[in-house]
Amino acid sequence: MLVDQIELRRQCERVEQYVTRGVPSTLRTFDEFAACLGFYLDYKTNPEYLLAKYLEDKDVLDIGSGLNGLAVAVELMGLNTRVTSVSPGLVQPDFEQFQKDKLAESYTYTSADYTEERVEAARLVANSRSYPFFAHNLGFADNSFDVIIDNFAVFDNSRPEVKLVLIKSIEEMLRVTRPGGKIRVGGGLNFGPDWGWKEEILRNMGLDFAYHQCGVEIVVPSPITG
Ligand SMILES: C[S@@+](CC[C@H](N)C(=O)[O-])C[C@H]1O[C@@H](n2cnc3c(N)ncnc32)[C@H](O)[C@@H]1O
């Protein structure tokens, strides 16, 4: 047990060094998020509606939020959704400027929906609910969220050498998610040999999970009563 704790600490240090190097960030628009997270079928017919429906009326935690693109998009769409973002890159000194530049690239500021003022207001709301946490150490109370999103982030970056950190990160995700909530892992998951050991972790933890087109959805168990 003691050895495990020491090894976990060593692996955490490796992850922290790796993830905080530079500003490792992406800013996706809402339809890109939908595609990455595997809402493909409906994405083709109505991209905004489906992911919106999944998130509607939920407390959402976006882990590895890049430039907080999901939170910005949700604000701009006026969804009744509270997105909290976590990304270690938030502490980078050039984070805000990089975020502003990317927003200017992604939103053309031509329509009434996406004026520069509205995008800026959405950016500020998104940033006011963001924290520089790592997935293995989420500073939130138990049962705080209904949905966790991990898009091209923790699962995607994890390698076998930092297996204990991935396990700890999943435990943290389960801890902060309400019973019956969902953890949607999406994006560049490799379903080849690199994915097998991750699937084994989920199985060993006795989790209820299902594949979608480009990721996995874990349903957080409800406590057994009676
Ligand atoms: C490729 S970006 C993806 C950003 C965003 N989710 C998207 O889809 O546009 C990867 C993000 O995951 C974050 N990340 C990677 N490993 C992480 C970890 N162990 N804990 C928290 N964030 C992590 C990085 O800092 C970065 O913000």
Automatic annotation (TrEMBL):
It comes from the Bacteria. Residues 106-183 form the Methyltransferase type domain. One of its GO terms (molecular function) is S-adenosylmethionine-dependent methyltransferase activity. Pfam families: Methyltransf_11. This is Methyltransferase type 11 domain-containing protein. The lineage of its organism: Bacteria, Candidatus Daviesiibacteriota.
